[in-house]
Every structure is written in structure tokens, then in C-alpha cells.
Amino acid sequence: MKQTNNGSSNNIANQQNAFSMENQEKLLADALQNVRQHAFSMKRVLDQGVVMDGLKHAANMLSELRTSLLSPKNYYELHVVVVEELHHLELYLTDEFEHGRGSHDLYEVVQYAGNIVPRLYLLITIGHVYIRANELSRKDILRDLVEMCRGVQHPLRGLFLRNYLLQCVKSLLPDQEQESPDENKTGTILESLDFILLNFAEMNKLWVRMQYQGHTRDLQRRETERRELRILVGTNLVRLSELECVSVDRYKTIVLPKIMEQVVSCKDSIAQEYLMECIIQVFPDEYHLHTLNLFLKGCRELAPTVNIRNILISLIDRITSYSIRDGVKQSILETIKLFDIFSEQISEVIKSRSNMPPEDIVALQSALLSLALKCYRDELDYGDKVLESTRKIFDEVTPNMQVQTGSYAAKELVKMLKVPIDCYTILEVLKLKHYSQVLQLLSYRERHTVCTYIINGILDTETIIPTAEEVTLLLDLLATLVVDQSDSAFESSKQNIANEDFVEEQNLVARLCNNLHSTDADQQYHDVFKNGGIERMRFTYPPLIMQAYALVYRYKAIKDQDEKWEKKCQKLFQFCNQCLTLLTKPESNDLPLRLYLQGSLAASEIDTESTETIAYEFLSQAYVLYEEQAGDTKAQAESLKVLIGTLEKVSCFNEENHSTLRQSLTQAAARLLKRPDQVRALLLCTHLFWSAKRKNEAGNIEEIRDGEKVNACLKKAAKLTTQVMDLAAQIQLYNELLNYYLYFFKQNHPDIDIAVLNTIIEKLRTESARLEQNNESVEFINNQIRKTFDYMRNQAQLETNIEKFKGLQINQ
């Protein structure tokens, strides 16, 4: 007994040593060399017609498959070579039978081979030949072979042996309802099912047994090897799915129960996970639909360590995809209550697994939610039930607590909450009563992610939120981005304009404001962002103000239908004024200034009794903001341009108000710090005295056409241009000055004639000649001057302008 134990220990030690990389390569090389030698001898004697010697050499070649020292990967390489060589024997025997020279006792002869592995390989090969030659009953040979393979109980050798058996007979398995009447009984589909199911059961047992052979320290290596071999077992299920006579009823009563019995009884997590996934993938969708309860019941009986989540999600996803195909959905939903079945079974699975991780629970609920929303699109209650049950599950596990930030459960909840956004419009999502309750399970960062996803979905689909009630629901849902949150203390320090993420987030919210659009003008505006805080106002108030201005135009368009439209417009302007007053606190003056000017234009357009008062107030407020920009020369110059342009377009002022404003802007232009800015601003001011509009005493709108003031501005600009020290900048200003003189010349200004134009042209030529050449900036300036001269030449050549431009000195 002691000697036996020592021998067993040495055998295990030899096996462990054999699994080193170098030893494996050597063992494989030696085995392959022996195989090729015996294969060569086998082919030589077969060519001579000596079958018995050929069988002996084949048996010697097959003896190499008796090894226990090769890893599964190397054993596979050896097996491939051996089977390829064995195929030569099969072809030879087949040819012999086709020409009537085949021996009828080979099947009995090879059973006397000394070792069981070579014996069974030879039996399978010869049995295959006999079946094709109709030498013996097909179903008897199949039953005989699958039973005799039980003689090899070594897991690795047994798996490859049975896989060889399946590959040899897969095209010979009977696939018919009734047996043929000839003497050699071919069998029916039932014999095929018995054969494959028995082969599958035995292969699964061998596969599982691999887990428990060897030392525990090699457990991880064995699990890896088992996963490499899993396809050998799964091939049986693939072959079952290929049998045409396996109907839904036969699958439900015979095939699936026996497969599930084997899967459940093996109690091995690796085998159960793979085989359940294999069942889902290889059999048709229709079969799964009619066996849902049986399959899901088997899921509850799997080992506790099995990742049941992936199995169920895979099944739900496949059923969902099948159910929503054209022409399939209606018939399925009428006959099979998919949601009820999955909902009940998933609930039972969660109850039966008390230690199921929260992330797995959420993943299952997410898959169920996807099923409910895609298959039962019109039944919002189904989706809401899933959300409600999810909230209840978490309330039971962690009552009054949020899911930890960054946890797997939080990530799965985020994925789950994105499902309705992908399946529905936001208007439909707002009808899910428990959606916001599940959202509140998340901490600030995850809620932020979901809310951002919701807004992006609205913007991408260009969804309009039409009613005040829906706007309120939406902004309650998006509260994380709209107002400060009690659980965002850590994030509050980052909620300012210096933070790029915060800026990006609030820009999204601002864009969302443009989608709050009602067909009813009285429901269009909603002041829902007032609690967002100072930092958010700079983003949310500008689009709200612009929407209020747009609403003013809408009220004007429907004034015949609404007697109170003027009062409503006045209230809107009052609101905008209040918002702009708040906006000037956190924001630089540029944006509020432009919004004031936009309001002045809007007031001018609607033409009510209070139009002039509102427009003057908004313009004067903009001018105050302009003056507060005294420290920023560039900003002042740009703001003054916008102020001048706005006043030129506003047409609701009487002479007194318009005179005050245009004189103020002209004085402001002369007070700018830099000479070039002064010149350009004064040139712009010329329009305020020419093309700008005002109301006369009769209430009619007329252009000002004050040529004296225009001439004064032009002369002042010309004088300031001579004071510019930079020659290149001075020449650019002379070119701009020439363009303005040309404009007013064409406008028939009484004090501007050809002589004035020629004076400026001559000055421009004289000064430009002083510029240094071969300079990019100089080339740009010369190009601008050429364009001006070309335009003047073209104008002078027009038939209608020949007399007007007579005497223009520009051609030479």
C-alpha cells in the first residue's frame, strides 16, 4: 500500500514537471514525430493492400493520444494531426467498400486492440465507414459507439474522443420522423436526440471532473484550461440546434428538460454559466419564447456562485430584439406575457439569492426595463413598475441612504436611467412617476451625469417642451444642474465660471431654455431659474431674456386676438430689466449691454405707447454699462460700435431723445483713448446724423439727414487721422476715411464733391508711397487701397455716373 502511494505521488510530480513550457514543447515534438512515423508506415502498408498491418500501425499512432502529460492546448495540436492522418485510413476503407473489397469483420477485429483509446478511435472510424456503406444498422452502431466511449474516463482524453465521435457522425445522424423500411435500420430523430444528449452528458461530466484533478495551487490554471475546452462540450448543443426535426414541442418536452437536468445537477459554476449562455445563443428565439418558465426556473436552481446576471440579461436582450422585429411583435405580445414572466422570475431570483450584489440587481432591473419600454412602448405602466420595484429594493437594503459614489451599483443605476432616454422622448419619460425617485438614489456626481445625458437627448432630438406643467416636471428632474444641491458641498467650490466643466454644464442648461416653447403665447415664459444662484444666472438668464424678447414679437403678431397684448409686453420688458439688473452683478458688462440694446430694438419694433420710454431706458442703461468699462479700452471701443449701430436702427425716438443719445455717443467717440478708435467711432457716428430715423411732430418716421453734422464728424476724423503716429495705421484710416467720403458723395451730400475725393486720394497716395515694401502688413494695406480704387473706377465708368464722377483723378 505504501509503495502504491509513493508511485501515485511520483506520477503527480512527473505531471507537474511536464507542464513546464520547455517540457511541453519537447513532449509534443516527440509525440508528433512518433505519429508521423507510424502514419507513414500505415500509408505504406495500406498502399500494398495489407489492411491488418495498416490497423496495427494506426493503433500505434493512436497510442500517442494516451498521454496525460500534455497540456490541453498541446494535446489539441496532437489530436488534430492524428485525426488528419486517421482520415487517410477512413478514405482507404471507404474506397474498399465502394469497390466491393471491404472486410465485414473489421468492426469486431479492432475491438481486440490492446489499449482502449486506440481501440475506440478505430471503432469510431470503422463504424463511420460501415454506416456510410450500409453494412450494419445505423442506430445500433451509434448506440454502441456512444456507450463504449464510457470506457475512457480520463477527462482530457475522453473529451477529445467524444468530440471526434460527434464530428464523424454529425452528417449521419437520422433527422426524420419515421424509420426507413430497409433492413439496415437508420433510426429516427429520437435516436439522434438520445445519442447527442448522452454524449453531451458524458462530456459535461468529464469537463467538470477536470476541476478536481491535481493540487489546489493549480486551480486557476485548471480553470483556464477548462475554459479553453468548453467549445468541445458546446458543440453537442450546436448539433442539436441544427436538427430540422427538433420542433418547438420536442424541444420543450425532450431536449431542454434533459439539458437543464444535466446543467443543474453538475453544480459547477463554470459549466453552468457557459452552458446556459450556449443554450441562449444556439437555439432559435421562438424556442426560447415557448420555454421561458422552464429555463428561468432552472436559473433559480443554479449554483450560488454562478453569475446569473449575465445569463438573464443575455436572454432578455435576445428576446427583446426578436420581439420588436417587424411582423413579430404583435403576435408574440398577444400570446406570451413576456413582461409578467420575466418580472416574476427575476423577482424570484433576487429573493432566492440574498447575497446578490446590488449592481447585479440593478443590471437585471435595467434589462427588464429595456424589455418593458421596447416591447410595450404604449404601456408606460410596465416601465414605471420596474422603476418602482427598483426603488423598493434599495429602500429595503439601504433605507434613506444614497448609493455610494463611484460604486458598481451607482454605475449600473446610471445605465438603467439612460434606457428610457434612449427609448422614449423626454415628454414620455416625464410620465414615468418613479423615474425621479430612482434618480434620487444616486449621489450628486451620478445625478449630474444622468441630467446631462437627459439634456443632450433633448437637444439632439430637438424636442420641444410645450406646457408649463411639463417644464416644471422637467426642471424638477434636472434640479441637480439648475439649483444648488445639499449633497454637493464638495462640488460647490467648483461651481463658478473658472471651472470648464461647470461652464459646459451650464451652457447645456442655457441651450435647453430654447426648447421651452409653447404654442400658447401666455404659457411661453416660465421664470424657473431664479433659484439657481448668481453663478448660474450668467448662463441661464441670457436665453430667458432673449425668449422674452421673442415673446414680445409673438404678442405683436397676435395683437388682433388679444386686447391686453400691450400690457403683457410691458410686463415682459419689466421682467427683462429686473433680470439684467441681477445679471450685471456676476457678469462682465459686455453681455448685459448687448441684451439691453437687443431690448431697445425689440421695444422699437412693437410700436406701443410705452415703446419710446422702454427703448430709451434700455439704451441709457446700456450707455451706463459702457461708461463702466473705462478700464478696458478695447471693450469700450467694441461696445461703442454696438451702441452706435443700435441707435441707428431704433426708430421710435422723437428729436429730443434721439438728439440727446446721438450727441452723447458722438462725444463718447471723441473721448476714446486711442486715436484709431476715435477715428473709426466718429466715422460710424456719421450714420447717426444721416440714415438714422426719428419721429417728427406728426408722428411719422423720417431720416435725419443732417449734412452739417456729418461733415463735422468727417472733418474731425480726418484731423485725428493726421495725429496718428503709426504710418501703417494712419494709411489704413485714410483708406477708411475715403470710403466714408465716397459713400456720402454717392448719397448726394451737399458739401462733398469730386474735389474733396481727389484731395483724400492724393493724400492717400502720398502717404502710402512712404511705406516700406516687402512687408506682409504693407501688402495687406496696399491690397485694400487697390480694392477701393478699383471700386471707384468701376463706379465712374457706369453710364449713370459718368457725369457725377467727372474729374475724378484716379486713373493715372
Automatic annotation (TrEMBL):
Subcellular location: Membrane
Record bears the keyword Transit peptide: no
Keywords on record: Coiled coil, Membrane, Protein transport, Transport
TM stretches of this protein: none
Record keyword Magnesium present: no
Coiled coil ranges: 754-781
GO-annotated cellular components: cytosol; late endosome; retromer, cargo-selective complex
Domain of life: Eukaryota
GO process terms (BP): intracellular protein transport; retrograde transport, endosome to Golgi
Major localization listed first in the record, in broad terms: membrane
InterPro entries reported in the protein's UniProt record: Vps35, Vps35_C
Membrane-topology annotation of the record: Peripheral membrane protein
Function: Plays a role in vesicular protein sorting.
Family to which this protein belongs: Belongs to the VPS35 family.
Protein name, per record: Vacuolar protein sorting-associated protein 35
UniProt organism field: Didymodactylos carnosus
